[in-house]
Structure formats: C-alpha cells, structure tokens
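Here is an idea for our session: we take a single protein and study its fold together. Which protein we use is up to you, so please pick one and set it down. Once you have written the record down, we can walk along the chain together:
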Amino acid sequence: MKSDNENIIVVKSKAFALRSIKLYKYLIEEKREYVLSKQFLRSATSIGANVREAIRGQSDADFGAKMNISLKEASETEYWLELLQESEYISDVKGEEMRAYCKELIRILTAIVKTSFEKNK
C-alpha cells in the first residue's frame, strides 16, 4: 500500500481541507459570516478525515463505507460552496476555484467507491 504522502486522495483531501480552513477564516474575519461557513468547514474537513479512517479500515467493506461517507461529505461541501458563492460571501472566482477542487475530489472518490463496491460483490 502507498504511504499517505503518495496516496492521491489522501494528499488532495488534506490540501482541500487546508484551503477550506483558510476560506473559513476569511469568512468569519472579513465577512462576519458564521452559519454557512461553519457548515462548510465541517463538511470540507470531514472529507479527508473519513479518507484517513478508510485507509485504516478494518475490512474492504469498511473501506468502501468510509470512502462513500467521504463522497457524501464532498457533495455536501459543494452545496455549501454554491450557497456561499450565490449569496456573494465569496467571489465567483474563489467559488469556482474551490468548487473545481471539490469536483475533482468527487470524481476521484466516485471512482474509488465504485471500484470498492464492485470488488466486494
């Protein structure tokens, strides 16, 4: 198995979490937005946390289940980003940048989940 530093979903989900933390800090410090930003932060950081948990899963089924939770969190995160962008708390440029990164995670996680469930049939 690859180390965490070589595993693309581990690396990308952590990088996204760090970007999300910076965006959260901006939202609370500059925009004084506390409700949507907190929901966004929780789901955005949960993606990588569940990926890490999946990597250390007890079984293939556990791995697939945790990766599926990560996928759900990524989808929720995309929703919060849409709301933040459409309510003009974040610019279209920043919103599109973060959503593109989130969509990339969704694509990777979808492939992992699909493969995992096919393997466990």
User: Anything to note?
Assistant: The mean pLDDT is 95. The chain has one domain: 8-119.
